[in-house]
Structures are given as C-alpha cells and as structure tokens.
Input
Amino acid sequence: MKLTRSVLVAMLVTATMTVAGCSSKSSSKGGAPAGSTAGGSTAASSTLPDARADQAAVLLQTGEILVAGGVDANGNPMASTVLIDAQNQARPGPDMSAPRVGHSMVPLASGEVLIIGGHSDAQGMTVLDTTEIYDPTTNSFRPGPALTTARSRHVAMSYSTAQGERVLVAGGLTRVNGQAAVLSSAEVIDVAAGLSSPLASSLSQEMAKAKIVRLDTGKLLICSGVGTAGTTAPNVFDPATETFTPIFQILARTGAAVASRGSEVLVTGGVTQGGNVEASSEVFTSATQTFSNGVPMSLARRDHTATVLAGGDIFVVGGIDASGVATTAVERVSGSSLASATVSVMQPLQTARYLHSAIARGGSDLVIIGGFDVNGVALNSIETVNINATGTPTTPPT
Output
C-alpha cells in the first residue's frame, strides 16, 4: 500500500497502519510462535500492573525505569505510570495530570524527567500543550512549562548551552479547526525558567513520528519522520545556532528503528514512500553528516526498536514484518564500524510485539516492555534479553 494522503493522516493519528493489505493483527513470524515460552535467550521477568503499548519509557539515574502513558488493552490513552526496579519487578507509579499517548519523555541533568505533549483521546482529537515533570526523589509530578503549540508524535531531546540545559521540541501533529495538521515548527523549553519559546528556525518540512538521537558533536539527528506528503528528509539540529539542516538520505523511510553510537547512527527497516517494508539499513556518519548504505538485516520490519548497549552493540527487537505480521525476531549488530558490521540472529522473544519499549540497563540487561501483540492488543509482559547469548551470523537477503 502506497503512502497516500488518507493513509498518512490515519497513520499519524494512530499507533500504526496496514501495509500491503495485511493487518498487523496476525500470527507471529521470525521466531517462536506467538505466546511461546521457548524464547531461549529471553526470560519473562514480570508483568506490568496494566497492559500498555505505544508508551514512553526512560532509565532514571536511580537505575529504575519509568514507563508513562500509552494505550491500554481497549486502545484508550493512559495517565498511569509504572516503575520497574533493578530486579525488573514492576509497581505502579504516580498518575500524570492527563492521559497521554504520542508524548515524549526527556531525562534531565537534575535526574528529573520532562514529559511533553501527546494526545489524550483514542481519536487524537485532543492534542495537549501541557508538560509535567517527574521527580524521582518525591515520586511525584508537578506542572512544567506550557508549550507554545499543542503537539503529539513530535521529537524532543535535551542539549547544553552556555545558559544551561534546554530541551528541543520539534515537529509533530496538532489540530487546526478539528483537522489533523503536521508541524514543521520547533520550540525550546527552559525548564529552570519555566518557559517554552518558539524557535525562529524550523524543520525543512512538516514531519511527525520521527526519531531523534544525539551525535558526538552535540548536534541532534532527526529522521524516520512522515508528513501528509509521505516520507520526510532527515534534519540535523545545531544547538550552537539553533538551526536545522536537511540531509540527503539514500532511501527515505518512516517507522524505522534508529540507534546512535555518537559518531555513527544506524537506521534500520521502516516503510518507504511506495509502502515497501525494508530489511536494508543506512549509516549516518557524524563527521561528514552523510548517509551511506549499511549492512542488510535478516528481516524486513517496521515499528521495532534498536538499542545501543554499553559495549556498542545494537539490538534490534520485535516489530512488524513485510507481510504485516508481528515478529519475535531479535538481531544483534556488532563491529567497530556500522557500515561493515556483523548481523547475528539471536534467540527470539517469547512474545511477538511491536511499538514496545526497549531499555538498556547496565552491561547485560536489555528490558523489553509492553507493546502490541499479534492481535494488536496491548501486552502486560516484560521480557529480559540476554545480551551475552551467542547469536548466529546471518547471510542477509539480497
């Protein structure tokens, strides 16, 4: 299915979409059968208090994982949060001031977490201009600075300036006269001052559902976005000048997984303008600000995660394959250079899932949280991937 305007608008509001006429609500492929407990390198750690998918999650300085918002098993946005301790046991956290999905979470230097925007209803009609701040010392929320523009499915990340820490908020989806509108605008939050201010510069085009990662130069790479015209060009944000520069990408894609080593960024999978789900990858090099072809993966997929571990290896987990089937597949990308890396197929997850969270904690812990199952219903399970397990180097598809 091509990324037509009607498909794109629906895709922007909802968590995912249908590709090539195949629903993501089908049986598992790429690993153990759906619901299998023969995961091998994964272990079921515990369960969430409530099933959730399309949530946001960050690692706190305390070592705990904060999980916030998302949608429940009925598809309704959630205001509740969860804390996952070092033994991967989950307990309820404090509620946010509003249900949120399509929001962002930004860890701050203070150890607090800034939660930004999102929408509070299943149809995406109520887009939020509010933020709130989680304080792990008191295990509570307080109101944060109001956004200049209500937005959901945006990107956000902190950066340092001579004046102190700032948070970039860019792109996303809003509502204008009741209609979905994609944004190119950006704003910068000064948490200490309690103020968000619009940037004079903007993204090179309107985009939502993008990914943002930090480079070793301090700049930020934004890619894998989508707008009402289709896939969008990556942008690099320079904190020194507070400007965006569009970057040529070999194959524009959305729904990709993006992971940064600092000097190199891996962009893997995703959906092209023509609706093809990709097994290909690209590597962005920070020094030259250019993309090059990366190694092919063993499986075409979208709505998956890519997570960098302490040693530099990247784990690619879950997602939906080219036939629209949720997958249990886990792949490991390793090597000194991502352009010539080795891809190894690891033992699969116990449960196929997509739009989950994947959080690296310590040197040997990759925690997989929630997400949608093969029927498109939110999961309450948590799995731990054993990153020290031996994988099988693969000969990727040509």
Observations:
- The two ends are 22 Å apart (CA to CA).
- Helices lie at 5-13.
